[in-house]
Structures are given as structure tokens and as C-alpha cells.
Amino acid sequence: MSFTFGAGNGGVNGGVNGGVNGGVNGGVNGGVGGGFGGILDPGSFLEPAPGDLPLILGAEFPVAAFAPVLRAQLILGDFVSQDWKAPAICPAPLKDEQAYRTGVKELLEKVPLRARRQAEIVAQSDALGDVWLQALMASPASHPACTTLIASGVLIGQMVGMYWKAEHKMPRPVQVYPALMPSIPTPPHPSYPSNHALQSRLVAFLLQAIFTDDAVNKAMGKVFERLADRQAQNREIAGVHFRQDSEAGQAIARNIKDLVLGLDRVKKLLPLAAAELGAVSAGPKPDKPQLAPVLDEARFKALVTDAVEAGVKKGGGP
What are the Cα distances from residue 45, in Å, to 4, 11, 37, 169? Predict the structure, then answer.
């Protein structure tokens, strides 16, 4: 399709001139017709494609080019026929006043961690699956089977979590204690269970199942569990989930794990994912790192107060 702006201007100008010389109606019609005709060439829409080249027969769409997040929808479709709505899948939430008092207290105690975790919190809020790809040094192009497993855990966890959220309709922390001031926008759905906790733990189970060697399976299971726990905790630090939300999400993941791992498409993906990651073995722990102690806000204030008081006693003043 071609755009000829020069001819368009000529058409408009010709129409205007025609309108002045030949009358209002002729000018308007000539201007519109001439301008449109100059800008868009109707014939360009009908230009035929070359038909003198041979067909390519027998091709199939390559599996590697099938976007993992779309392949994961096939696994989601298989999963929905499972019994994931049974009452035992999701533990009942605590709704009494003491539960809220304790929950808010725990979240307030986590507020000092926001400064160190905020970038991580935002990244996980926008793209949960990317955390796992980074942990495996993987990408959809280099590790399509691994990426499909990750996407499947995220999709299934999202659907299951939304179902139970709608069942329980639990308030978000900011509804219970507005002064909490979450560090990210509160998501537009109920609080219980935490979908991030559910999804991350389900992804952890799927990735752990890739490793068939017992020692490696246990070692990687600990790694993935630690990473999943951190993602769940970050949602609490951000102030958008109570601890019981996280615990419920993790419990649901444990309860549906076997349903997901039993799906035929998942079983076929696991050896492909193992081939992508290559042969690995479980080794010893690294030497213990010497890390500088991290001060939380309360401890920092206490040290400042002690220093000021010490200065006053010595006569130096604050």
C-alpha cells in the first residue's frame, strides 16, 4: 500500500480552487474526492501477490516456535477437569479480631524491610515467571520446555487462586489497617489465598520434578522452596498480603501438586526440560560468607538514641 502525500496536497488544492471557481458543491466534492484519491491509492489494496512460485508442502509448525505461555494454556485446559475445587484443597481462613491484630502486627514489623526489597517486590509483581527463568539462566528460546512448565504453574495457580479468593472474599491488609500504606498498588481481587505464594510454590514443585536423581532432586527442591518462600514473603513486606494468605497459597499448591504432575502433557515435558538443563549433581555448601550485619529501623533508631545520650553525658551535646 502506497501513501503519496504530494498528490494528496495537490488534490486538496485543486478541490479548493475548483470550489472557488466552480461553486461550493463542486469545490467540496472535488476537494474531498481529490484529496482522498491522492492520499490512498485504492488500487494498491487489490494488488495481487506473486503466484508464480511453488508451494512448500509437508511442513509442520515447529514445537520450539510455539510460545511457552500459549502451550501452557493447553496444560491449563487439561487441569480444569481435575478435582481442584474440593473443600479440602483450601484451608479455611481465620476471621476473628485476634487474627487481624496479629496479622497487622506482623506486617508492621516487616515494613523496615521494604527499602531493601522494593525493587525485587516490583519486579515480581510485574513478571512472576521471570524470577524462575533468571534462577535457571533460561529463556523461552533456549529452554522452551522449562519455560512452559513455569508458565503452566503460573497459569494454573492463578486460576485456582482466583476461585478460592472468590469463595472466601477476605479483605486486603490495607482494608483492615489503612495506615499500613502498601508499597505497591493493592491488587484488585481478594486477599486470601495469596496467588504469588500459590503460583511460586507450584512452579517450584514443577521444576523440582525435572530432576530424577534423588540427591539432586532434594537439593534443587530446597533451592526452589527458598525462592518460592521469598516471593511469598515479599508480598507480605509490600503490605498486600497477611501471613495466613501466604500459608494458604502454599497449602493449596501442595494439595494440587500431584494433580498437575499427573497430567500427560506435563509428564512429556519433564524429560525435555531435563535435557535443556543438562546433567548436574549435588555438591557441598559454599564457604560461609562474611556479611555485614543489617540493621532494621528499630535497631538503627536505638543506636542513634544511645549515641545521642552518650554524647550528652560527656557534655558534647546532641
Answer: 14, 20, 13, 53
DSSP secondary structure code for residue 75 in this structure: H
pTM for the whole structure: 0.76
> For 289, phi and psi rounded to 5 degrees?
-70, 145
Contact indicator for 148, 74 with CB cutoff of 8 Å: no
Within 8 A by CB and 6+ apart from 84, the residues are: 160, 163, 256, 259
Q: Residue 183 carries which DSSP code?
A: S
CA distance 162 to 82: 16
Kindly report the backbone phi and psi dihedral angles of residue 28, in degrees, each rounded to the nearest multiple of 5, phi listed first.
-65, -50
Cα–Cα distance between 183 and 185 in angstroms, integer? 7
Class of domain 84-277: mainly alpha
* Tens digit of each residue's pLDDT, the chain (318 residues): 332 333 333 443 444 344 444 444 444 444 444 444 555 565 565 666 777 889 999 999 988 889 999 999 999 999 999 999 999 999 999 999 999 999 999 999 999 999 999 999 999 998 889 999 999 999 999 999 999 999 999 999 999 999 999 999 999 999 999 999 999 999 999 999 999 999 999 999 999 999 999 999 999 999 999 999 999 999 999 999 999 999 999 999 999 999 999 999 999 999 999 999 998 888 888 888 887 666 556 666 666 667 666 655 555 444
Q: Where are the domains of the chain?
A: 84-277
The residues that bridge with 40 in the sheet, in sequence order, are 3
CB-based burial, 76-96: b 16+ in 10 Å, e otherwise = bebbeebebeeeebbbebeee
Place of cell 485504492: 42
